[in-house]
Records
---
Amino acid sequence: MLAILRLMIVSGMMEGKMETKIKRYVVLSYLVFWLMVLGICGTASMIFHWPPVVIRILSNVCAWAPTIVLLAGFKYFCSEETIKDFYKRVFGGSISALTLVIAALVTVSATLITIFVVSQIQGREFDSYWSLGVYPFLASFLFSITTGPTGEESGWRGYLRPYLNRKYSFFKASVIQGVIWAFWHTVLWFVDSDFMGIQMIPYVISNVVVMTGLCFIMNFFMEKHDNLIYGIVIHFCFNFLYCFLKVDIWFYVVLSLVYLMIIPVICGIRTLKWEKERRSVEKHG
């Protein structure tokens, strides 16, 4: 009995320490990112007036803040494993080509459906919402893959997600991840957005809803295939299309509604899947 009690006390202390580490990690990721954006990109743009391509490269560097914080404080945040072991673990889960393609298609389809709906509402051609972008196709691809997908995912999905998923239900963990991830972008809403005034309200709401929806998609696929490549691919598929979009605030309004429909669909499919697996276990048990 005493041994069980000691184990519970030790487990509680370890859980408390881990929660403290997680909170510090989130706060530091926010602060480092905001300081990098304002200090590096702000200085380069407003004082030195460097060309847009240089600012874009610097903004990609800033997107690596969650990984920079994680690796810089790795001995504190992940004291029980090495960096090599960490990456072997987060990329160690199984990968299914079919589910990876489905995950990508779900993400891309949400944006395409949104464009189609907006085009019907505004009476415009579908292709009028697209352009070749500021940079050549290959440059856009490289900029997209080397920003959030590779820069953020080690921290948000590699480090933060497993802890939240252990502590909370699928739904609550996904919401918390989405809110943390969304508000990390706060500084960009004001310095790298085309919207001002009243339009900022639906824009901010859309960011929170959509990023939360993306967390539901990521968690759904990574629940079985616990491999960070799913988070990277989903993140990339979402970001890449934005290199070629020409949209107004109504796109973000409709996109929010699309993701608000995706979330219950994912939860419903997950419930049906677990119910099917439970019945299978009972049948063969």
---
Amino acid sequence: MTKVLEADTELTRAKHAQSMAAYGEEGRRRAREIGNYGPARFDADARLHPDILSAYWQHGFYVFQGVVSPQEVEELRRDAGVMLERAPVSPGAKVDAKGRPALGLDAARELYTIIKPLSDPEGGTDANGGRHPIRMTEPKPERDAPNYVVLRMRGMCQYMPAGLRVYGHPQLLAIAASINGEDFVPFNDVIFVKQPGLGGSVSWHQDGVTHWNNPQWDEGIHGFNYQVQIYPTTAANALWVMPGTHKQGRVDIKRLVAENGGSERLPGAIPLICAPGDVTIVNRQTLHGSFANTSPDMRISITFGFHRRTSVLGSKAALSMQSQGVTYDAQRIFERAAVIAVAIDARRQYYPAEQPFEYQPFADRKRHFAFNTETFEKVIRDYNLKDLAI
């Protein structure tokens, strides 16, 4: 069951929003200086343009502008909106805010992370292997705020038709192949929800946990995450990153905060400012986090990641998969990667004029993984029980 933490009772929403203004402006200035944004561009071999690859490896992130069409953004908004509306009204509840049966009661994994408004549910706790070592500032919500809000939603490929289709987006999969190799494999997916004046924090952290002491360690060994932005993101509600930290090994986050006078507003960080349809890519070793959303603006980020196959094969299950106590073998990887194949075909059926991505591990198996009722039940239902977390 979700652990619920109380919010700070002294700092108001309005004061927090005001106090973030100068920090946000400084972050935007640094983002403009780095300039790691632009449309997705590819070379003659359909690989990500070398200039973009170089910028990604230098800074540990990139913002691809205008990747997802306005039509697809609207479909993602619709489906994500249904998931949000059908969330349990409180942790452990069986009904939504309108008294209807909550979505996902039959799911093998819990669909929702539900928290107190403006709280930091994981910072300073042992959650996720203790990778969130500091607790973010928790402003006091407005008096009319609900008791609980959604922070994360899971299972987009099962519960969101548009979510399954965007998982098979040809440009995003081509970028994954350019970075992680043609035999790239999936990580997981989750939808981050930062409701206006209510959304909680995600404390500063690095995603990867498995390979820090691996003799073959390099800056790409823990893979990356995409975030498809379906609303405008601002400095107040965005994901923030510390450029270049993916090259530094495990960062001492407590020390950084202590050296900053105890403030989590770390110098040198930048917000990933996006328009709807933009897609961010962030190396899973890049230090990143987000602040309580005391702004009037919604952020919903469709998040999914990919790994090198060599980083996963033979590794022990970690993070949300750790309790399974398994080692990822070729069969586990194949079964989870099949979601990519089905997603590609779901997208092909919906966008017949678009050139589908050719996913090499399933190139000679495509007809067996066409999107239909059978593959939905066999491959998509409860697919996230087979996530490949490292």
